[in-house]
Design brief:
DNA polymerase, domain 1; 86 residues; single chain; 0% strand
Length: 86
């Protein structure tokens, strides 16, 4: 049985807010709030996979300390643009 979109968005939003480090809680919660509703199913799949990554790695990718893996690079760049916009 497939997960309803409404439930999936709520689950991903909660996973975005409850990370291992506070910085990623803040960054991903804001990103989820601004972007999740507009994502199609394939993009939600990629975001779900991204949420399985280690917070230390995610933070280094988002902050530009280390390059993001090819498959996540465009999403990481989008997260960075939301996280560090002024």
């Amino acid at each position: 049985m497939s997960e309803l979109r409404e439930h999936r968005l709520k689950r991903l939003s909660m996973r975005s807010m409850r990370r291992g480090i506070k910085e990623m809680d803040l960054i991903l919660a804001r990103y989820a709030e601004l972007r999740l509703e507009e994502f199609d199913d394939a993009t939600l799949d990629r975001y779900d996979a991204l949420l399985s990554e280690n917070d230390q790695d995610l933070y280094q990718w988002v902050s530009g300390q280390k390059p993001a893996p090819d498959g996540l690079r465009d999403m990481i760049l989008d997260i960075s643009s939301v996280a560090f916009e002024r």
